[in-house]
Amino acid sequence: MSRPHRIYLSAGEPSGDDHAAAVAAALRRRLPGVELEAFGGPRLEAAGARVLDRMESFSVVGFVEALSKIPAHYRLLGRVRRAFREHRYDLVILVDYPGYHLRVAAAAAAAGIPVLYYIAPQMWAWGAGRVPRLKPVHRLAVILPFEEGFFRERGVPATFVGHPLKDRPSPPPRAEARRALGLDPARLTLGLFPGSRAQEVGRLWPEFREAARRITATRSDVQVVVAGTPRGCYPDPGAIHIHQGDPLPVFAAADAGICKSGTTTLEAALADVPMAIAYRLNALSYIIARRLLQVPWVGLVNLVAGYEVSPELLQSRATPQNLTAAVLPLLDPDGPAARRQREGLALVRERLGAPGAAERVAALAAELLG
Q: Is residue 1 in some structural domain?
């Protein structure tokens, strides 16, 4: 009697842990008896994977900050490479986290293990010249609609599976969400979304907080709530309400938002929240990023739409003055700025595909297992 399929899943940061957990759950439904081992965190563990190495100490933001984690990643890679050589796995599924996972893919391929990579490295942003590093990948499952064509044109077998955010619950009505947050259900609401990592919050919170104060000084009918995280620090919030935990109620409550760039902008789009986009990096990391960046925008809503739906205020432009000027017009829901944004956000929602991304990834995994 043959043994059950054994799959190795790898996710190096909280968002990857969430997405990998959804895939793990889908695999267990599709392949009863499958054995799952992982590099990951609490969500993967809760989904039934045996977590061999914990991800919590590996996650950082920025080129410079990542340097301190290189030795730990190489030690982890050594352990994983030995497991691959011992033929412990029938399939390797890698989720995002390209700096480490491209090396894991090469190690798996060298050991003759097929590789499914879910959530593609953003090589369309940082350089098509790096695409050959995906040669060890047997199938690339992409979550942005323009990625499938980009990678297929360069010889990578890519499949658009839809965006996993489409599987999250629909946001409740705004008044209901405000009540749940302890806010006045009748007042206009500004949502602040400075990110989930301590580094992001530390760089963005002072600017977001001061912009909110300027906005409420101009519009006394506006209340402010921040999507907080236990990893962040929010000094001197004043009248700003800090919500810790799931950010969905904050998106649902907000008439407009100030959002860090990245996936947060897609979450806002799904909740139909017009926004200004901001981001700040370590100065050296930003210099490196600007030299490498090959796309006209960093906000994913703008990249998916193909034009600037939401204004982007990056690095030195992410000032309270600029954020205030960008957001104030959006707080008028019937005004031209908010209406234009909502047209673009509707286009983004359509292009992100249908729900069921994790199930489609599990189906690709089953194909590779034969």
A: no
